[in-house]
Design brief:
Length: 382
């Protein structure tokens, strides 16, 4: 069976974890944490990074930083993972779900303005599959209505957006006021469970460190900036242990190699599948050309739910594990009676029709050849 995902170990993970254990500094915010944070700050030009125990945690920190309160409204795509909504729901916010684009699952920026009310506090775009949303438009709307933008960059490490307005290439996660990344074992670089908050708006840096360290100013104390630390705000224990950061550091050392390999695999899929897409058997995502890809995912969009179910079953019979993805959140058991009743047809279509193909570092070219020809055979027989 070709699995859907296989976590890749670069080789040094256990070594660095061992070294973290024997330095005697096991709790968070030690040397490995700082090495990881510095790396990301420098490479992607974030003002400040804080490792967290998950992307969900980083999103929760965003909700606390933005002082989200009951009654506030947050605009989120419905086609996303639960955590994008959950972080804000937990603070009592109302989530206003937006539909996706016709050509890809990213939030349709042209619909945002019609969803804004005087209670709207933030927009949370999700860069699906590591491909940027229309950030120029989203930032422009945010500025016009005085809203915050939190990028859910869970898929988006090492991917970029070229601003057509300013002509600059910017890392995803460095554009919104805040951004959240994931290092869950299904993402490009991993630490088992893990995440990161990226802060781009200076006003949040100081308070983020406090929220991260259980509402205390301990981080300042460690740097010798204050001579005692205490309880100064709300917060939680959002920081991972050094052992987790040590694991992540081993992955970071191989980031370029991981990305290059994934992009090669992605290209091979694309070349193999484009002729079938051109025949209309399914479609491949469409994007504007001011985005880069980070090969987080390779997916196709079937023409119907029934066809997708048949394709997934067929591939399983061929020893290939392909999977579907999110279910629209606006019709989820938890939220459907809180949603305002608008139909979000593109989200529902992606819920029904997306197929994600195996994508992981150790996937082989001849395995992709086999996957592509199995897909070909499926469409020959129907
Ligand atoms: C994986 C994922 C998350 C959650 O990440 P965790 O690190 O598991 O908390 C959030 N949003 C999106 C879009 C994701 O894909």
């Amino acid at each position: 069976m070709i699995p859907f995902n296989k976590p890749y170990l670069t080789g040094k993970e256990a070594h660095y974890m061992y070294s973290a254990v024997f330095t005697g500094k096991l709790s968070g915010n030690g040397q490995y944490t700082q090495m990881c944070q510095n790396f990301f700050e420098q490479k992607y030009k974030f003002k400040k990074c804080l490792l967290t125990t998950s992307c969900t945690d980083a999103l929760e920190m965003c909700a606390l930083l933005l002082r989200i309160e009951p009654g506030d409204e947050i605009i989120i795509p419905s086609y996303t993972f639960v955590s994008t909504a959950l972080a804000f729901i937990r603070q009592g916010a109302k989530v206003i779900f937006a539909d996706s684009n016709t050509g890809n699952p990213n939030l349709d920026a042209n619909q945002i303005e019609s969803l804004i009310t005087d209670r709207t506090k933030a927009i949370v775009p999700v860069h699906y599959a590591g491909i940027a949303c229309d950030m120029d438009k989203i930032m422009e709307i945010a500025k016009k209505y005085n809203l915050f933008v939190v990028e859910d960059a869970a898929h988006s490490i090492d991917s970029y957006y070229i601003s057509s307005k300013y002509g600059e290439k910017r890392a995803l996660g460095s554009i919104g006021h805040l951004a959240a990344f994931s290092f869950h074992e299904t993402k490009n670089i991993i630490s088992g469970e893990g995440g990161m908050l990226a802060i781009n708006d200076e006003q949040f840096v100081h308070r983020a460190e406090i929220i991260w360290e259980k509402g205390t100013n301990r981080a300042e104390f460690f740097r010798g900036e204050v001579n005692k630390y205490g309880w100064v705000d709300i917060g939680s224990s959002f920081l991972p242990s050094e052992v987790i950061a040590a694991f992540l550091w081993a992955q970071i050392e191989h980031l370029d190699e991981i990305q290059n390999r994934r992009k090669e695999l992605w290209e091979q899929y694309y070349k193999g599948l484009i002729p079938l897409a051109e025949k209309g058997h399914f479609s491949l995502p469409k994007h504007s050309d001011n985005v880069t890809k980070n090969a987080h995912m390779f997916y196709l969009i079937c023409n119907s739910l029934e066809e997708r179910s048949n394709l997934l079953t067929y591939l399983k019979q061929c020893g290939i594990l392909a999977v579907f993805h999110y279910l629209s959140l606006h019709i989820s058991p938890y939220y459907y009676d809180k949603h305002d009743g608008r139909n979000l047809p593109n989200c529902d279509r992606y819920s029904d029709c997306i197929v994600r193909l195996p994508m992981f570092f150790e996937l082989k070219f001849d395995e992709i050849t086999r996957i592509v020809s199995s897909i070909q055979n499926f469409y020959l027989q129907i």
